[in-house]
Amino acid sequence: MDKTQRIIFYILTLIAGAAWVSLSVQPGPVAAADPAPQAGFPAPDFSLKTPEGETYTLSDLRGSAVLVNMWATWCPPCQAEMPAIEKVYNEYRSEGFIVLAVDQTYQDNPLDLAPFIEEYNLTIPILLDETGDTARAYQARSLPSSYFINRYGIITEIVIGGPMSESLLRIRVEEALK
After folding, report:
1. Considering the chain, what percentage of its residues have pLDDT values greater than 70?
2. pTM exceeds 0.85
3. How many CB atoms lie within 10 A of CB 124?
4. CA 97: distance to chain centroid?
């Protein structure tokens, strides 16, 4: 190959590469991954149903302090902390505290839910995350995962793992109620 043929070959290779890049580009803007929820930032909104079909939307609860607790019936730390969550909920609900216990239904056995609620005498709202969308929005990687949200919809504390004690719950609830 002489010098002229090499130059033509390189130019054609560059043109082919440029054409390939321009044809491979996906249309539309490039979306960044949603950041993980953090203390000091707004809590991701969601709407979920209870087993009875009642819908709860987090943003509708502005003005109340909220604990979003991601859990499952098979999770031993979830089982261990549920009585404390129920007790603290009953102590503080008259002050505007709400618990949204989000069962990870997509990875849980729905038939285990009613016996669990009965065994622990739960009165807190139990919500069903049947698709896992809420867990993904909160980037819940382990259970239980708890998100304390103040009256303005801002996360004040995140507790990954458990079980949470009554004293820890009280401190976090009082902070969220401020």
Report:
1. 89
2. no
3. 20
4. 19
